[in-house]
Specification:
This protein is of the alpha/beta class. The chain contains six helices and nine strands. Strand 7 and strand 8 form a beta hairpin. Helix 1 packs antiparallel against helix 2 and helix 2 crosses helix 4. The chain binds S-adenosylmethionine (SAM). The site of S-adenosylmethionine (SAM) has 27 residues, from strand 2, helix 4 and strand 4.
Length: about 220
């Protein structure tokens, strides 16, 4: 996938329109909208497909994976209530777009991807854009215990259940956002860790994600 440092008026205008659309679709967190308005999503596309970059759609990034739909990225990010300095584990780096949005909000991000080719691409592209998260290659369905505990955990692939490991790696007061369901559709689940062994779970809207593949998943 080519990477060019060109963010001209056409792309900036398209990004503004995308932000307006997300606001109309119900995204209310102005900080999240600001981050979407800032990160050049077309940098994650081959130049041939730049015209698609600011449509509210998921798009193939190779290896059978997708860059998530902007609405989905905004929806999940809004649920995380990111504060400056939050330590965030992202499971499923994919293109790295969501990673950049989290970093724009001031998070310290640990991001794990199981597919080597996608991992290799993001470790090149993100630092060139000025984003330097901690990149990890491996199975994130078990979390990343060596860097635990996290204020927030976001899973960007659909899981059959909520892996216990992720709950254990969350700080008390922390939030886990994970799509849970079958291969066809998943419900967005948000879990607040209220005590060492206490959790509050809220089941929200239906989405369709690529599967979370791993030891504690599919
Ligand atoms: N938010 C990302 C973006 O905007 O580019 C989209 C991620 S894509 C929908 C989901 C990613 O999760 C894929 O890159 C996939 O390879 C990855 N994935 C699936 N199972 C995983 C696992 N067990 N550990 C780490 N990554 C995993």
């Amino acid at each position: 996938m080519a990477y060019k440092y060109i963010d001209n008026y056409r792309e900036q205008g398209a990004r503004k329109q995308l932000v307006d659309l997300l606001r109309k679709k119900g995204i209310e967190d102005e900080d999240v909208l600001k981050a979407i308005g800032k990160v050049p999503r077309h940098f994650f596309f081959d130049e041939t497909f730049w015209s698609q970059a600011y449509r509210d759609i998921a798009f193939p990034i190779g290896e059978g994976q997708t860059i998530s739909q902007p609405y989905t990225v905004a929806y999940q990010t809004q649920l995380l209530h990111i504060h400056q300095g939050d330590k965030v584990l992202e499971i499923g780096t994919g293109s790295g777009y969501q990673t950049c949005i989290l970093m724009e909000l001031g998070a310290k991000v640990y991001t794990i991807e199981r597919q080597e080719k996608l991992f290799e691409r993001t470790i090149q592209v993100l630092p060139r854009m000025g984003y330097k998260p901690e990149f990890i290659l491996g199975d994130g369905s078990k979390g990343v215990p060596e860097h635990a505990h996290y204020n927030k955990i976001i899973v960007t692939a659909g899981a059959p259940t909520v892996p216990d490991e992720l709950l254990k790696q969350l700080k008390v007061g922390g939030i886990l956002i994970i799509p849970v369901g079958d291969a066809e559709k998943q419900k967005m689940v948000t879990i607040l860790k209220t005590g060492e062994n206490d959790y509050e779970k809220i089941v929200l809207d239906t989405f369709r994600f690529v599967p979370l593949i791993g030891d504690k998943a599919w």
